[in-house]
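Co-fold these.
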Amino acid sequence: MIFSGGSLVHILDLLGYLILFPLIAAIFLLFERRDSSRSLIVQLSAVAIGIVSLLLLVLGYNRDTLLYAVGSEQVGQVMFFIELLMVAFILYLAVKHRKTLAAVLVLLQAGLLVWFETSLSHGLHVANNLFVDQFSIIMALIIGIIGTLICVYAVGYMETYHTRHPEVRDRRNIFFAILFLFLAAMFGLVFSNNLLWVFFFWEITTLCSFLLIGYSETEEATNNSFLALVMNLLGGLAFLAALIWLVLSDPSGRLLDLNYLLTTGKALALVPAVLICFAGITKAALMPFSSWLVGAMVAPTPVSALLHSSTMVKAGVYIIVKFAPVLSGTTEGLMIALVGGMTFALASFMAISQNNAKKVLAYSTIANLGLIVACAGVGTYNLMWVAILLIIFHAIAKSLLFLCVGTVENRIGSRNIEDMGGLIVRMPRIAIMMFIGMAGMFLAPFGMVISKWAAIEAFIQAPFGLIFIAILAFGGSATVFFWSKWMGKIISVMREQEVLEDTVKKEKWVVLWILTGLVVVVCLIFPVISWVLIEPFVLNIYGQTAGLAQANLTIMIMMLCLLMIMPLSMLFYRKGPHVPATPYMGGRPMDGNMHFAGSLGNSREVVLSNYYLEKMFGEERLFMIGTSMCWGLLLIAGIMLVGVML
Amino acid sequence: MIPAEFQPIVYALVYILVAPLLGGLIAGIDRKVTARMQGRVGPPILQPFYDVGKLFEKENPVVTVTQNFYVLSYLVFMVVAGALFFSGGDMLLVIFAFTLSHIFIVLGAYASYSPYSHVGAERELLQIIAYEPMIIMTAVGMYMVTKSFFVSTIVSSAVPIILYLPGVFIGYLIVLTIKLRKSPFDLSTSHHAHQEIVKGVTTDFAGPNLGKIEIAHWYEYVFLLGVIWLFFAWNPLVAVAAIVVAYFLEILIDNTFSRVKWQLMLRSAWIIAGTLGLVNLGVLYYLGMVVMP
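Predicted complex below.
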């Protein structure tokens, strides 16, 4: 009976639940200072949110876009009031920390907001404030499952974090409240059809990330949090400009209806699309704004995991992918795609030169977001299919990797990749999980390679696609390099190491195993995901849809199975009599296998380090190139936009 | 005749059975020709088979048991990549399987904590990133001419692909030097004792494991030369001649150059992919878009 017209569970209730429930959990967490009950609240909320997102999938996957006329004038006014409160709060912090730029930007935004509310908002009416389609269901699953898993993990992590960092003020109640507020805002963002609502949730994510990055209150953390804030406020201003443009072109406010706007065609929608995509680029940390996401790694690791996988940056690419049909075939869209493409290649190159694990992950995220934006900017139907696929695969693998690195960091006290040698002996299970996560990022037949492959096949049919294929070919090979050498570091076997992972808490294991399982399972069932969710969505917009050839799918799945069977060969090898040989030390090994005989009979330890190719792929130089080129591209897009406006 | 739906499987099986024989033979001829170029008599043509046979009779010393797994996976996925290619599969999928197989040998070398195999592993990775862009462009170029990534379509195309992709072909030959482990690009490990005594990426493999690596290499030979065939597929005679000439050129280059540093290898491979490959594709793209829409 659930599926009938007067259904038992109304989808609208689910949307409201998903937006409001995390908010309620956040309020509880804000006033809960005991560890045990906090842990309980987080776990129960995670289960509740996860189940409801799955329920949304079950009930909503086979519907077309559903629109809901919910909320009224009052909700809008409450949102306006909260926005003003946020402005005041940020202004207070900016003055307190003497951050002029942040203060100026936030005042500018406040001025525009007040002007908008007083002189433009009269008579505005958006029929449907909420909506749900297959893409928002996908986003909801990412937020509702991966996001909450990260929160569960964070409980144990933050406990260890505070014992390891006694100098940091214990504000865990605020921390967890913000995490859940973040989730609520993300749900709101992907379900809002009224662009004013989208903007409201957009600004909340900016504020949440700002507060989370600055959690440790060190000077570095504060500076980096303000860097993130300034860049995202800049994007927020562009978003606001888009809203004002929309209201000025149609005072009735009809254009603020997101799904209506997308169908109005390029003449009306292009200007707001490009402005909102600019906001998306700041939020998704593409060049020239990549530095805020790299700086965000000062935050506790679960925050990074959240920012990189299921929230924040995914909000940025979500909105850009949403506007892809408008961008497709326009020069402005091509410029945005090129910003994405440049970001993909340069961030992949920069990751080669980094030995800080979190930084490598950050650059890899930036690169993949760049690729998603490149797909969305060109915006043909098969590229949109690829972009959504990338969002899914990236969210899972990246959250797993961040949480693994966080666990390792808490045990070995370092996030330097060079210190992770022999992890397979010291933390075997974590090492295997990291291994699977990394395979998910760059090896066939796992997710990201499937997407890369589909991207090549899609770009080749798109206008100017050759540029992007070249970018994919070079950038893609760089990703192979930095992931493989990291993998190599982890699996290099050093004997006589102590096992460190027994102290890892049980709920952390649960989270990590679920995510590891997801990396593999989603690869196996992605044809189903594509068939049930992505293809209907793309078909709905473009009237045609993409997918991989059946023959190839079969082979991919066979390869994946083969890859899972291969490790069983170890059982066979274990049987035989096995005397470990010493690694080759120029013929002069000493005391076991980590030393060799040096001159004067000294025993010297072997220390091996990876290649970082600093001269060729150095961060500074490439960052300069990327920033200047991407600013240039954005400038061209901006100038053309002014041309369109006039 | 074989029914059409079984043809891919038959081709794959033929590759799996015949490729090591053919590859070993090529290796034998390679050694003979090389020896003659250096004024030596050289080993018998079947010497590679004797060598590998002997390797399998030896014991299997490993630093860690996982090395066995990596080497086995290297061989298995090399066979998978080649079999996919010869059964007419998707070129891009073949390339990804091919990369996967190489990652396994690199991981195998990393697993033993020897400085020599470590350097070999890093260099092997550098070689992978040096050749990969050009290989992908080769596949893309073939798509542009034949409108398909499937080897089965490309090979049955009546179009002389080489006339459309001369730049890509030259680029492919240059990265082939890396793939065949020929000087000046034999950085990770070399066939020649005058290049290095400690054998880079294969330092800590001996006995049956080394034998498997050798067999994987034979499979790889046949696959790589098969790609040359695609450029000339419209005429099998020309294709065979092209393969012979190309391979002879590789041997000649091998014996006239000494090893270069990795910087030069990476730069030259990328510059070639960026110029010869990309310009060739750009021209094709322009022709496809403007002249023959």
